[in-house]
Automatic annotation (TrEMBL), chain A:
The keyword Cytoplasm is assigned to this record: no
Keyword Ribonucleoprotein belongs to the record: no
Domain FAD-binding PCMH-type, chain residue ranges per copy: 1-222
Keywords recorded for this protein, A-Z: FAD, Flavoprotein
Organism: Hymenobacter lapidarius
The protein's name in its UniProt record: FAD-binding molybdopterin dehydrogenase
A Pfam family hit: FAD_binding_5
GO molecular function list: FAD binding; oxidoreductase activity
Leader sequence residues: none
Automatic annotation (TrEMBL), chain C:
Domain Aldehyde oxidase/xanthine dehydrogenase a/b hammerhead: 20-134
Domain of life of the organism encoding this protein: Bacteria
Pfam families for this protein: Ald_Xan_dh_C, MoCoBD_1, MoCoBD_2
Organism: Hymenobacter lapidarius
Protein name: Aldehyde oxidase
Molecular function terms, GO-annotated: iron ion binding; oxidoreductase activity
Length: 344, 203, 744
């Protein structure tokens, strides 16, 4: 970890100004990923701007019937918020599928988006990695790539985004609110993270100095039919091999609206709108789900150690859609918590 | 032969940041340290305050041994900078109980033999305390899941589960805050999961 | 022997210290004026260091020194100085000795600074250049150059074949032949390796080391640095998990001592979790097993061959295949074991070393053989029960494995199993029931113990053994309290210090038997000393009384013939005018016994029954029930003993389902060197585990009848999981761990 200065920012505009005035500065929210990366010498900020005092930790209803998550709200406070539990249970499920209770107590919602990949090579300075050091090559290609991507990869990088929360945020059509040197703007969630292409060092489309201030969930929360299914190497506290966020609106057995996003398979939460369109108007049957799963994975590419993810993802999609369809429209408002039972 | 360079000279040392006074409120006391921002809460406890009950198992948020309570919530102290915790109420294992006056969880961990080497134990207890503070863990399945952020390489998980369950059960209305210590046959399964005679599976 | 304490579920006497955080581990002795050392690790697997540019780092205020091969003196020349008690044959690795790189993550420099953070930072900017040469890390490519090791390390028994396997194979009517493999695994105790060296002046050191053997650490330090024992006191009161990783002193000890001697300061060196992947590990093995049975299901031939990795510089050996020659009755047994040299660090004993690896192959093959022979796997094992150790041609001192089979199966409900794979369901889930088991040595080594009774009547019993979580403090306190007839509160057991009587390494499941029996001996000696003192006292009833005529109870020495004739022990000490009366056992007989050929085969056994539930589409596996029935002689404390076996089961599940150190052979480097990516089981993975200790009385194995528990509980667990998965799914996976991709 290199040496750095630290200030606690008092307001968003002050934080943004401070970032602009310090080369090598970084914002720090919960610190769960940044401090980790600093200890690995992957991140080497020279100045940290603490965000704790910005007050962006509230969760409140928006006039359009949606919900605004303050960027500094913790993952735990978000998952267990009554409005999230009752209206966006998919988000509750996704958050609780990630990390551990103590990490969720620290990690912020904005920070969750800013997580960097868990690719082994990105974390290990002894190996080349285009994301860490552009131009050095991708060690995961041809190497140990069990955790790596199968969709939207490039010859430069096959890393995945590790978040569970983001998979639900993608499925729910979230809008990301940011503040930067040029003022405020919003970014559609699907445009927030990028695919690696030739610039895997860029995880997202934030402009220099921009700070996430909030996440806006639209009114539609798919609270009646949803599933977050996460498959991993142990029952809990492991990153996803494949995860699926599925949300349906049903009219009888006919699908009226659908959302489908995958985690653990791409450089970003992989929302597939074409597949969603294929679901709409169809009966909610295993046949439909299988056809859609095949479509989602149509252009998937395996890299050896992770090729199994193609088949696993197909099966997971079918299962998640089935679970979303069959679930009873009752929500446990106490805490929407599905213990890591079999098959999830 | 390939030439490999470790830590290229381009990354050469910059001027080191001077130390600054940082006041932490730990176990009911204000403690002022002179540290640079790069000191984590974990290292502040262990290396500067001699509060070595909080353990370092991985230093990367991957094991839970460093778990402490901040404002009543359990966090990984290894991933928090001490300077970020000024003004917070920090509670470590040393603040939960003493050998002469054990907390209910500490007593339950002993009664249920919920540890072996003891290294993950303070973190396990702080996690369990955090869950109890939050009221989130109620069933065995929830406790198993919500205690999964604390690795125990000795594999004391089933005893950890029964220790935590005992304290949770003991706090339910009607239990009058008393610890219920079920008679336990030590050659049998963990408490509350006495293995029943096997029901014939469907064939 | 009465049983006031032995055999009772006493809570751990060190429990209060452990649950309140006052138990101190090696990196927790905050001695004054201490420096911090941070290790720099090699990014390459093979080659040499061509340049180290320490100047910019040394220019940082607060950096005291950068140690590397360029400036560390050669304290010792010969290999024997670097060989610890259990060093295998070869030439031990010498940290910071020369420019040569022998394995990835090899320590190449130690940066010492005023604070931990500064040392860590300085280490990260230390400029080092290397010339890399081609390395070999792939075991499967070196089967042909594998060789039979010579003597190997202590405890290694070259496998002995018997009969004629070829003939047995031909005699068989059913046959199984298969290849098995598992990857390297790392111990990953929760406590990272660390040493705090306290500089006391004039080369006198207190060394707080993470180890499973304080004397072994001391031995190495005195040999390499030429220090006398009184200058190198090693202290290890608590060890945060060992599992074998602390059987050999690790390099942080040598670096910390070196830095302390060179700088004449106290120094702490802690390894990072990543660096926990830089030393010993359970070696990868590739195994071949062939079994044949006659029509009645009796084994006519067993062939078990294994190739294991070792380093280029030492021959690490373990007993992988030998167990296959003794667990079942068979005349024709062919066994083979070879090593292949790779550019890795020397492997190291890891819980149930050898047996855990070998039992995967043997016990899966036994399951396959049972199917091929048309027999239930339990019935098949019963038919091939060994009543006589054919490997050593010796009778068993005791063997209650049959009871393990019966009691374990009954508890599990094994009778209700239907044989066909996929034939049992729980709703949509596939249910599988599998079993396995194993055998482990019951060993007793010489151990010295001192028993000391003070004038307050408090008994202090001490021995330089270790507490790694197995309950040493507790069981020794129980034994001592029982032996001297004192309440347990009046007894303190002290360990983990080279100033105490010498005790063997804490490992191999031998501590309970070795130290436990010695505690009894020392207490007997103390009793004799107390009796001797009574002869000087005015007590006619005790005049001329012999030790066999008295018993110790309730803090008194009483005549067996008339228990109203009693002396309070405290009074005896007070009458002596000394602050305490003490005695030490003699290890002479134990040492002599080790030289004699054994009369009995002395082993602990177990049988494990496992239920898995498998999602038929997603192929996720959950181990929902485990019954582990163990025959390990006398159980000193069923509470701590049960915990040992519970832990063993968790280890077995990890080995079966998730643990592997994955090497990228292009870099010769384990890539998942973290606890996020080296998966060990978490709480949510663990469901019902039932431990059964079957009754096994053994008056031959050692006076207390103890066989040890650290390893045996793990045997057969991984195989039982694999067998249960086969039973559930019909998929036979022979490459551990059985991750989801292997079942899709």
């Amino acid at each position: 970890m290199n040496s750095f200065t630290f200030t606690q920012a008092a307001a968003v505009d002050a934080a943004v100004r401070e970032k602009a005035s310090h080369e090598g500065a970084a914002y720090i929210g919960g610190g769960t990923n940044l401090v980790d990366l600093m200890k690995e010498n992957v991140a080497r900020p020279t100045h940290l701007i603490g965000l704790k005092k910005l007050g962006l930790d509230t969760i409140e209803n928006t006039p359009d019937g949606g919900l605004r998550l303050g960027a500094l709200a913790t993952n735990a406070d978000t998952a267990y918020h009554p409005e999230v539990i009752s209206r966006y249970p998919l988000l509750n499920q996704a958050i609780l599928a990630g990390a551990s209770p103590q990490l969720r107590n620290m990690a912020t919602d904005g920070g969750n988006l800013m997580q960097r990949t868990r690719c082994y090579y990105f974390y290990d300075l002894a190996t080349p990695c285009n994301k860490r050091e552009p131009g050095t090559g991708c060690s995961a290609i041809g190497g140990y790539n069990r955790v790596c991507g199968i969709l939207g990869t490039s010859d430069s990088c096959i890393a995945t985004h590790p978040s569970d929360m983001c998979v639900a945020l993608a499925a729910l059509d979230t809008t990301v609110r940011v503040s930067g040197p040029n003022g405020e703007r919003t970014i559609k969630f699907e445009d927030f993270h990028r695919l690696p292409g030739d610039h895997p060092e860029r995880d997202n489309t934030l402009e220099p100095g921009e700070l996430i201030t909030g996440l806006d969930l639209p009114a539609k929360g798919f609270a009646q039919h949803f599933s977050y299914l996460k498959l991993r190497d142990r029952t809990s506290y492991a990153f996803a091999l494949v995860s699926v966020a599925a949300a349906l609106e049903l009219d009888g057995n006919t699908i009226k609206d659908a959302r489908l996003a995958l985690g653990g398979v791409a450089h970003k939460a992989w929302r597939d709108k074409a597949a969603e369109a294929l679901l709409v108007g169809q009966p909610a049957t295993a046949d439909t789900f299988r056809r859609v799963a095949a479509k989602v994975l149509e252009n998937a590419k395996g890299y050896g150690e992770n090729t199994f993810k193609i088949e696993l993802a197909k099966r997971a999609i079918v299962r998640a859609l089935k679970q979303a369809t069959e679930m009873k429209a009752t929500v446990d408002t106490n805490a929407y918590f599905q213990p890591s039972a079999f098959n999830s | 032969m390939t030439h490999v360079t470790q830590a290229p000279l381009g990354m050469s040392p910059a001027t080191l940041v001077p130390t600054q006074p940082v006041t932490l409120h730990i176990n009911g006391q204000d403690r002022t340290l002179h540290i640079a921002p790069w000191t984590t809460l974990l290292d502040a406890l262990r290396e500067y305050l001699d509060l070595t009950g909080t353990k370092k198992g991985c230093d990367h948020g991957q094991c839970g041994a460093c778990t402490v309570l901040v404002d009543g919530k359990h966090i990984n102290s290894c991933l928090s900078l001490a300077v970020m915790q000024e003004g917070s109420e920090i509670q470590t294992i040393e603040g939960l109980g003493t050998e002469e006056s054990l907390s209910p969880l500490q007593q339950a961990f002993i009664d249920h033999d919920a540890f072996q080497c003891g290294y993950c134990t303070p973190g396990q207890i702080c996690s369990a305390q955090g869950l109890i503070n939050e009221g989130k863990a109620r069933t065995e399945a929830e406790v198993r899941e919500l205690m999964s952020g604390n690795l125990c390489r000795c594999g004391a998980y089933s005893n950890i589960l029964s220790a935590v369950m005992e304290v949770i059960e003991g706090q339910k209305p009607g239990a009058e805050g008393k610890i219920v210590m079920p008679e336990k046959e030590w050659s049998a399964g963990a408490a509350h999961q006495q293995m029943p005679p096997v029901a014939p599976p469907k064939k | 022997m009465n049983t006031d304490y032995i055999g009772k579920p006493t809570s751990r006497v060190d429990g209060p210290a452990k649950v309140t955080g006052t138990a101190k581990y090696a990196a927790e002795y905050n001695v004054p004026n201490m420096l911090y050392g941070y290790v720099v690790s090699s990014p390459i697997a093979k080659g040499k260091i061509t340049k180290i540019d320490a100047a910019p780092v040394l220019a940082l205020a607060g950096v005291q020194q950068v140690f590397s091969h360029e400036n560390v003196p050669h304290f010792a020349i010969f290999d024997r100085s670097y060989q610890d008690e259990i060093a295998p044959g070869g030439s031990p690795f010498r940290p910071l000795y020369d420019a040569e790189i022998k394995f990835s993550l090899q320590p190449v420099a130690l940066v010492v600074a005023d604070t931990f953070e500064l040392a860590r930072y300085a280490a990260s900017v230390l400029h080092i250049e290397y010339e890399e040469v081609a390395h070999e890390t792939k075991l499967s490519q070196h089967i042909d150059d594998a060789y039979e090791p010579g003597k190997g390390k202590i405890g290694f028994q070259p496998p002995k074949s018997r009969g004629n396997f070829g003939k047995g194979w031909k005699e068989g009517v059913a046959h199984v032949e298969a290849q098995f493999s598992h990857h390297a695994q790392h111990h990953n105790p929760m406590e990272n390796f660390a040493t705090t060296v306290e500089w006391l002046g004039d080369k006198h050191l207190n060394i707080y080391d993470k180890t499973q053997g304080a004397f072994n650490s001391q031995l190495l330090v005195t040999k390499i640095f030429g220090l006398s024992k009184d200058r190198a006191r090693v202290i290890s009161k608590y060890t945060g998990g060992g599992f074998g990783s602390g059987l050999r002193p690790q390099y942080q000890l040598l670096l910390a001592v070196m830095a302390s001697l060179e700088l004449e300061r106290s120094v702490r060196v802690s390894l990072t979790r990543e660096q926990m992947f830089s030393f010993g590990h359970r070696p990868e093995t590739l195994q071949h097993v062939a079994l044949a049975t006659a029509a009645d299901g009796s084994l006519t031939g067993i062939n078990h061959f294994a190739v294991a990795e070792t380093s280029q510089f030492e021959d690490f050996t373990e007993n992988v295949v030998g167990w296959s020659g003794m667990l079942y009755d068979c005349k024709n047994v062919a066994l083979g074991y070879r090593l292949a040299k790779l550019d890795v660090y020397t492997p190291l004993d890891m819980r149930a070393p050898g047996a855990a690896s070998g039992s995967i192959a043997l016990e899966i093959a036994m399951d396959e053989m049972a199917y091929a022979a048309g027999l239930d796997p339990l019935e098949f094992r019963m038919r091939n029960y060994s009543d006589h150790d054919q490997a050593q041609d010796l009778p068993y001192s005791s063997k209650a494995l049959r009871k393990c089979y019966h009691e374990g199966a009954a508890k599990f409900g094994w009778k209700q199993r239907t044989a066909a794979p996929g034939s049992m369901r729980d709703g949509n889930l596939l249910v599988g029931w599998g079993m396995g088991g194993g055998v482990w040595d019951a060993t007793k080594l010489p151990a010295s113990v001192r028993a000391s009774l003070d004038a307050d009547g408090h008994l202090t019993v001490s021995s330089g053994t270790n507490e790694i979580g197995t309950g040493t403090y507790t069981i020794m306190t129980q034994i001592a309290a029982e032996s001297m007839g004192l309440p347990i509160e009046a007894v303190t057991f002290v360990l983990g210090d080279t100033e105490l009587p010498e005790s063997p390494l804490q490992g191999g499941s031998w501590t309970a038997a070795s130290v436990g029996n010695s505690v009894v001996e020392a207490c007997t000696k103390l009793g004799e000393a107390l009796l001797k003192q009574t002869q000087k006292m005015d007590s006619p009833a005790f005049k001329g009384v012999k030790i066999d005529d008295v018993q110790f109870a309730n803090g008194q020495m009483r005549l067996r013939s008339d228990s109203t004739q009693a002396m309070v022990l405290r009074d005896v000490v007070q009458a002596s005018g000394e602050p305490r009366i003490e005695a030490e056992n003699s290890t002479l007989l134990a040492k002599l016994a080790m030289l004699k050929p054994p009369k009995y085969s002395m082993h602990a056994h177990n049988a494990v029954f496992v239920e898995v539930k498998v999602d038929p589409d997603l192929m996720t596996v959950h181990v929902t029930r485990v019954v582990n029935a163990v025959a390990a002689g006398r159980i000193l404390n069923p509470k701590t003993a049960r915990s040992q076996v519970l832990g063993s089961v968790v280890w077995g599940l990890g080995m079966a389902l998730m643990e592997e150190s994955v090497m990228d052979h292009r870099f010769g480097r384990y890539m998942n060197h973290s606890l996020a990516e080296y998966h060990v089981p978490v709480n949510a993975d663990i469901h019902a585990i039932d431990v059964v200790f079957v009754n096994e009385e053994d008056d031959k194995v050692n006076p207390l009848g103890i066989k040890g528990l650290g390893e045996v509980g793990m045997l057969g667990v991984a195989a039982a999981v694999a067998n249960a998965i086969y039973h559930a799914t019909g998929k036979r996976v022979r490459d551990m761990p059985i991750t989801i991709d292997k079942l899709l």
